[in-house]
Design brief:
The protein has 466 residues and is α/β, with parallel strands linked by helices. The chain has 14 helices and 23 strands. The structure holds zinc ion.
C-alpha cells in the first residue's frame, strides 16, 4: 500500500499522483505541465509508469494542470474509467477540446518552422476517446472503485465541480484513509460553496499554491476592482483582464452584475472574448445546485447569464479582432489566464504600451508565463516575437484567486482531528515550505514533496529511495 508523487511536487502544474493498493494502481489527476520553456518537452516524456497498468483514475477538477494529460494517457493505452464529479464532467469537453486544438496548432507551427512532421501531444480524436471513459459521480457518496479502494468526492469550493477526494485503502487487514485536497477555494467566495469540512484522515495530501501568502479581504478586493475601473474611466483607456475561462471569468461577470449600478458600468462595453469562457459560463449557470445561498437568491434574475446589458459575447475570431480598434471604454475579459497564449495576447499587444490602459491580474501566474512577467513589473515583454514596452498600469487582485490563501489552507487542515501527517503538493517550494512551517507550529508532521517520493501507507512514512 503506497502513494507516489509524479507531478505538482515542488511546482504548481502537472498534478499527478499514484496510489498502489492490493496489486491495483489508481491515478489521482493527470495534469498538463504549464509555464517554462521546457514544459512542451516535459509533457511529451513517457509517463513514469505504464499507462496500460493503471486500473482507475480519479480527477479532482477540470483545470488543465489537473486533467490536461488524460487524453495522452488514453493515447498511450489507458482504457479504464475516469471518475469525477458530474459538474466537472460537464466542463471537461470544453477544456480538453481546447487543449487538443492548441496542441495541434503548436505541432503545425513547429512543422512550418522546422520543416519536419511533428506529432501533436494529442488530437481531438484522443479527447473523444478520453471523454467516453469519464464516469460522473455525485458528491458525498462513498463508492467502491477497485478491490481494496473506496472513494468519496467532496466539494472543494475551487471551481464548479471541483473535488477533494477521500480514499479508503485496504490491504492485508490494514485500512488507511487518505484525503487529497485537490485545489482548495477561498472561503466565502462568490457563487461556490465553501470547501468541505473533513473530520478524519490517516494521511493528508494538500495543495500549497498560496501557502506562504495572504490574500486581500473579499470586500477590499471588490472595492479595489471598482477603484481600478473608475481610474481607467478617468484615464480614458481600456481594461484587460487575462482570465481563466473556468471560474475567474464567471466570478468576474457575477461581480460586475452585482456592482453594475455602483461602478457605473453602463459607461463600459464589456467583452467576454473567449469561446471557452462563454461555454463554461453556460455550464456554470446550468448547475445551480452547487451555488452558495447568495448566488441562489441572485440567480432568480439571471436567466441563463448574469444581467449585464452591455455584455458582448465575442465568439468568432472576427468578433475578437474588432475589439482591437477600440481605444477606450472597453473592459475585455479574455484567455488565457496566465497570458501564455490565446486571444488576450492580441489585446495586450494593442494596449500594453499605452499608459492610460490597465491590466488586472486575477489569478496565480506560474513562473515563465507572460502574466508572471507583468506581475514582476518587467518594463518590456515579447508577444508573438515582437517587443512591447509595458506602460499600462498593472494591478494584481489576489483576493479574486480561485485558491485559498495561507489562512484558508490552515482553516481547512484544522478541521481534521488528531493532526494527521500532511504531504504538501501543488506549490512552488517557497510556498510549500511557508505552509509547512505553520503546520509544524500546530504540531503536524508536514513534508514538502518532491517528484518520485514514495509513502508507505501502512506506517505512513516516506520510503527509502531505491
Ligand atoms: Zn485548479
Amino acid at each position: 500500500m503506497q502513494l507516489e508523487f509524479f507531478g505538482a511536487a515542488g511546482e504548481v502544474t502537472g498534478s499527478c499522483h499514484i496510489l498502489r493498493v492490493a496489486g491495483r494502481a489508481l491515478l489521482l489527476d493527470c495534469g498538463l505541465i504549464q509555464g517554462g520553456h521546457d514544459a512542451p518537452a516535459r509533457n511529451r516524456l513517457p509517463f513514469p509508469f505504464d499507462a496500460t497498468t493503471i486500473d482507475a483514475v480519479v480527477l479532482s477538477h477540470a483545470h488543465i494542470d489537473h486533467c490536461g494529460r488524460l487524453p495522452l494517457l488514453v493515447k498511450r493505452g489507458y482504457r479504464g474509467p475516469i471518475y469525477t464529479n458530474k459538474a466537472c464532467a460537464d466542463l471537461l469537453p470544453i477544456l480538453l477540446k481546447d487543449s487538443a486544438s492548441l496542441a495541434m496548432r503548436d505541432a503545425q507551427r513547429n512543422e512550418e518552422r522546422n520543416g519536419e512532421r511533428t506529432e501533436p501531444l494529442y488530437d481531438l480524436e484522443d479527447v473523444e476517446v478520453a471523454l467516453r471513459q469519464i464516469v460522473p459521480i455525485p458528491y458525498d457518496t462513498q463508492r467502491d472503485l477497485l478491490p481494496g479502494v473506496a472513494v468519496r468526492v467532496r466539494d472543494a469550493g475551487h471551481i464548479l465541480g471541483s473535488s477533494s477526494v477521500e480514499l479508503w485503502a485496504t490491504e492485508g487487514g490494514e485500512r488507511r484513509k487518505l484525503v487529497f485536497s485537490g485545489d482548495l477555494g477561498q472561503y466565502d467566495t462568490p457563487i461556490l460553496q465553501d470547501p468541505h469540512r473533513f473530520e478524519s484522515a490517516d494521511l493528508v495530501l494538500m495543495e500549497s499554491t498560496y501557502g506562504n501568502r495572504l490574500h486581500r479581504g473579499r470586500e477590499d478586493t471588490e472595492r479595489e476592482l471598482g477603484g481600478i475601473l473608475a481610474q481607467a474611466e478617468r484615464d480614458r483607456g481600456n481594461v484587460i483582464v487575462p482570465a481563466f475561462a473556468i471560474g475567474r471569468s464567471q466570478e468576474l461577470l457575477y461581480l460586475l452584475a452585482k456592482h453594475y449600478a455602483e461602478w457605473r458600468l453602463s459607461r463600459w462595453k464589456i467583452f467576454l472574448d473567449s469561446p471557452m469562457a462563454i461555454a463554461a459560463s453556460r455550464v456554470y449557470w446550468n448547475n445551480p445546485d452547487r451555488f452558495d445561498e447568495e448566488t441562489t437568491r441572485l440567480r432568480e434574475s439571471f436567466r441563463g447569464m448574469p444581467p449585464l446589458p452591455n455584455l458582448v459575447l465575442s465568439e468568432s475570431p472576427e468578433d475578437s479582432r474588432a475589439i482591437n480598434h477600440i481605444r477606450s471604454g472597453a473592459l475585455i475579459i479574455a484567455g488565457s489566464g496566465m497570458a501564455n497564449g490565446g486571444r488576450v495576447l492580441h489585446h495586450l499587444k494593442h494596449n500594453l504600451d499605452r499608459r492610460e490602459c490597465h491590466v488586472v491580474i486575477v489569478g496565480f501566474q506560474a513562473a515563465g508565463t507572460l502574466g508572471r512577467q507583468l506581475v514582476d513589473r518587467q518594463s518590456e515583454v515579447r508577444i508573438h516575437g515582437q517587443r512591447v514596452p509595458v506602460s499600462a498600469q498593472i494591478h494584481t487582485l489576489g483576493g479574486l484567486s480561485a485558491h485559498g490563501d495561507q489562512d484558508d489552507l490552515l482553516r481547512w487542515y484544522d478541521s481534521f482531528s488528531g493532526r494527521p501527517p500532511v504531504y504538501l503538493v501543488h506549490g512552488e517550494v517557497q510556498s510549500a515550505e511557508g505552509l509547512a512551517v505553520k503546520l509544524r507550529e500546530r504540531g503536524a508532521q508536514a513534508t514538502v514533496t518532491r517528484p518520485g517520493l514514495k509513502i508507505d501507507l501502512v506506517d505512513l512514512r516516506a520510503m527509502a529511495r531505491d
